[in-house]
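[Target chain]
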Amino acid sequence: MDWNTLSFFLLASLTLNLIPGPDVVYIVSHSMHGKLSRGLTAALGLGVGYLLHTAAAVLGLSALLLQSAFAFTVVKLLGAVYLVYLGLSALRRAYKGGGALSLKQSAPASHNAFHQGVIVSILNPKVALFFLSFLPQFINLEQANTTQQLLTLGLVFTLLATVVNSSYALLGSWLFSRANRDKLSRIIEGASGGLLLLLAGRLATNQ
């Protein structure tokens, strides 16, 4: 895997992870209604869940590639469409408001933030769909080590996601408590959604 592909993957991963979603709400809720340590622990729990999704995606996509390179390409194309959908959804929330950061959240019922975070991540079908859509976009089928490529990208994404989620745990309480949290949410979602569409366009032209 060359540096250009990896740097592009890092930019795309950072963009996607910055968009506030259910995981961010879950983490910030722990930080707000408990202690900062609970928010960070929740972020680590979600990270473990991402690792399990990575393993599942690597096994599934590797098996698919062994069966048919054409089917793998179809998965990549469908994944690019899904990324466009995510970008448009972020732009719509930025325009209309009502994003994740603008909602009032109640305290999580469980104090076991780590175990709950793992379960929340594992049982979220959107996470599985995301990994199956996102990782194949950066695979070079001309290289023989496709499984290693998938695993490397999945681990890098999980690490970056955990860092971003931990940052939300640190700053989330401040973001949620501010009167202009809706404006902040719309700025984040608008910028991320626009960049995501640009990234999806580049991915589509590089198929």
